[in-house]
Amino acid sequence: IQPPLYYFLLHFWIALAGDSEFALRFLSLCFGVLTIPLMFATARRLFNRNVAFIAAVLAMLSPLYVWYSQEARMYTLITFLLLLSSYALLRALQPSPLPSPFRGEGVWWLAFALANIAAIYTHYFAFVVIAFQITFYVLRFSRPTFIRALISFITILAAFLPWLPFVITRLGQDVSYWRGAL
Question: What pTM does this model have?
Fold first, then answer.
């Protein structure tokens, strides 16, 4: 039902760690734990150190997030990837005091695109966050970054096109995902 990236990673994880219940759930735990410092870094970039600390603690103690960090499901991976792409977007849009060749904005746009491509191959919810990221970019429009942003967003969409026929076929087969009029 969902895109294949998490299950692909899980396949290789099983080869490394085995297929015990603990091993299967540990992959989700890894992404859950990695999300906490990433939450801190993202919140610090948006606000300040105090807000970042509170955000990281809330992520660490969130019952829903603790629950999904214990399940062999893709939810902690999608959270990590979307937070990573949002962090990369913030870094790409931040003006750098360094001269142009040393700014590294291109690296952040690449990280943004790759994290979002991985996210759309993890869960369809990623498109909601990508729509928000587009809105965020448009509201903070910066002409020098327009071409890089456009290339990144087009690359993300183009990377999903090979999976689109499967999604359309799946929607036709499983009516529980498409119940008619919205």
Answer: 0.88
